Amino acid sequence: MSVNTIEHNRKRFNFEGIDAIWLFGYGSLIYKVDFPFLEKRPASIRGWVRRFWQASHDHRGTPEAPGRVVTLIEQPGAVCKGMAYRVSPHVFEYLDVREKNGYLRFSTTMTFDDGSHAEGLVYIATEDNEAFLGEASEADIARQIASATGPSGPNSEYLLRLAESLRALGDDCAHTFTIESHLRSVDNADR
Ligand code: SIN
């Protein structure tokens, strides 16, 4: 599958007759909210874990020196916390461009903090996209993040803002926090 998913996503879901739909965000969509929304609620999805296994050539890196950003990987029983937004379908005209580097929209069931559920969409960069990097040690991921920067800013800012947002949401994402602590050691070693 080509790395640019804009056209794939446009064909993927028929929004006809729908005024609003829930979107679950687990990465930059938690803290970089540059789109209009009708409602916002902390939520979680089951059966997925957050992993820095996707390359960023367009936001937090370049084609020559890609950064690393998060995608979701299936893991039975896991719970991934994030932020849900109720949005007008028009918002996907923008978000499909923002998330174009390998992410496809999938349907998901999300659970809100009061235990209620809603169906909605989530962007996932699956293993078959060209920008999928896959597993690496958390120390190596931190080193790659420390040296990458792109049009949206340093890759380290993506990681640190995500870690801060996950703490605020009460998510104990060991993967993100371990990479964050490696990044801080890389920074200290460079000083
Ligand atoms: C998301 O935040 O839900 C998708 C991945 C990202 O944009 O960082």
Q: What features would you describe in this structure?
A:
The protein is of the alpha+beta class. It has one domain (6-190): Gamma-glutamyl cyclotransferase-like (Hypothetical upf0131 protein ytfp, Roll). The protein is 32% helix and 34% strand. The chain has helices at 6-12, 28-31, 91-98, 138-147, 155-169, 174-190, and strands at residues 21-25, 39-56, 67-87, 104-112, 117-124, 149-150, 153-154. The strands form 2 sheets. Strands 1-3-2-4-5 form a 5-stranded mixed barrel. Strands 6-7 form a two-stranded antiparallel ribbon. α4 packs across α6 and α5 (155-169) packs across α6 (174-190). The protein starts with 5 loop residues before the first helix and ends with a helix. The mean pLDDT is 94. The structure holds succinic acid. Succinic acid binds next to α2 and β3. Keywords: Lyase. It comes from Marinobacter pelagius. GO terms for molecular function: glutathione specific gamma-glutamylcyclotransferase activity. Its EC number is 4.3.2.7. InterPro entries: ChaC, GGCT-like, GGCT-like_sf.
Would you summarize the structure shown here?
This protein is α+β, with helices and mostly antiparallel strands. It has a single domain (6-190), classed as Hypothetical upf0131 protein ytfp, CATH 3.10.490.10. Helix content is 32%, strand content 34%.
